């Protein structure tokens, strides 16, 4: 008997139950993806607050490209509430910035923490990352102000960093000459990468003439910078849990390889020694066989010295094998083996000839 079709009310209840299950128990892959998504704390520059068009645009781009669970923006006290006072020294903003970071971390525990900043905000972010109570996974510096107002290079904070740093700089940024940035990066302990926006100024703005010459647009240039940043972040966060394991594996592999090479050298040494002893044993058996016929004994005994000379060369061959295998094969080793075989064959043929002559007589 065919089963009756569920009533409309029953179908509606089943649909509602299914929807509730999806809401309460999202797929495990989705949970894993969300847990691996970073939380980004994005600090503004000295002259514009977080509500500026530049900050809003880059906040959206970073959130999308980095798959961030949230990009937290804020205003430093000197510029909040519509104030327009001169910014203080970067060091005086570290405590306030650190509190913002701690609040973001408490809101998203277990998520990777990325400190990002524009100009002065990137410099303060680097200072915050150096604090012991802040566990940053990575820093993104957009237009890092490497040169101070007096023209001096401000690299002290960068040289103390131990977390990966991504630099995005305009090629025409007067506050960060590229050659000076490259020199600083070579001295840094932390891993870093530099993406240059060709023709960009301190805020990455490219002149229309330069864009026309390159056949590009402002959006394309900034999108390339964002994609380079996302690639660096992905590589850095993926490998952040494995450096100790990789080092341990490399040390273990080196140890195993060393033991194998030592074993190989020992085996080769023993092999050649046994080989020469076997030849010597066979030769003396041959001598005894010929001596039992009473012929050519003096001729055969004279060739014992020849065999001894060949054996001496062979033993020296095995002794030097463990010292320099490649050098030995090319130079001394092959020559020694040839000398030994020449003496051995000479003695063997002379003994055989003596035995043959004895049989004829």
From TrEMBL:
Regions of compositional bias (Basic residues) in chain numbering: 1-11
Protein name: Alpha/beta-Hydrolases superfamily protein isoform 1
Biased composition (Basic and acidic residues): 12-22
Ranges of residues in domain KANL3/Tex30 alpha/beta hydrolase-like: 38-233
Keywords carried by this UniProt record: Membrane, Transmembrane, Transmembrane helix
The UniProt record lists the keyword Transmembrane helix: yes
Chain residue ranges for the region called Disordered: 1-34
InterPro entries: AB_hydrolase_fold (IPR029058), KANL3/Tex30_Abhydrolase (IPR046879), NSL3/Tex30 (IPR026555)
Residue ranges of the TM segments: 242-264, 270-291
């Amino acid at each position: 008997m065919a089963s009756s079709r569920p009533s409309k009310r029953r179908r509606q209840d089943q649909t509602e139950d299914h929807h509730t299950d999806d809401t309460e128990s999202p797929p495990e892959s989705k949970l894993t993806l969300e847990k691996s998504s970073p939380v980004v704390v994005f600090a503004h520059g000295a002259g514009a607050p977080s509500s500026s068009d530049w900050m809003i645009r880059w906040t959206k781009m970073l959130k999308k490209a980095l798959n961030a669970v949230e990009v937290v923006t804020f205003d430093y006290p000197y510029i909040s509430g519509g104030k327009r006072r001169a910014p203080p020294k970067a060091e005086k903003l570290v405590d306030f910035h650190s509190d913002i970071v701690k609040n973001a971390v408490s809101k998203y525990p277990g998520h990777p923490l990325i400190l990002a900043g524009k100009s002065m905000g990137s410099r303060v972010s680097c200072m915050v990352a150096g604090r012991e109570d802040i566990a940053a996974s990575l820093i993104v510096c957009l237009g890092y102000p490497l040169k101070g107002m007096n023209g001096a290079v401000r690299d002290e904070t960068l040289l103390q960093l131990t977390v990966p740093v991504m630099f995005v700089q305009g090629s025409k940024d007067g506050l960060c000459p590229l050659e000076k940035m490259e020199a600083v990066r070579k001295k840094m302990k932390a891993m870093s990468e530099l993406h240059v926006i060709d023709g960009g100024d301190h805020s990455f703005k490219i002149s229309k003439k330069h864009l026309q010459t390159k056949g590009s647009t402002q959006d394309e240039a900034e999108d390339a910078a964002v994609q380079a940043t996302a690639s660096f972040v992905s590589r850095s966060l993926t490998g952040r849990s494995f450096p100790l394991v990789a080092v341990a594996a490399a040390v273990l592999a080196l140890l195993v390889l060393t033991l194998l090479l030592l074993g190989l050298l020992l085996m080769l040494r023993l092999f050649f020694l046994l080989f020469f002893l076997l030849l010597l044993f066979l030769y003396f058996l041959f001598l005894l066989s010929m001596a039992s016929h009473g012929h050519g004994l003096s001729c055969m005994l004279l060739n014992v010295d020849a065999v001894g000379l060949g054996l001496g060369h062979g033993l020296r061959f095995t002794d030097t094998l463990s010292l320099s295998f490649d050098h030995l094969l090319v130079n001394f080793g092959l020559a020694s083996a040839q000398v030994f075989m020449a003496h051995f064959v000479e003695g063997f043929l002379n003994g055989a000839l003596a035995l043959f002559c004895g049989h004829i007589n």
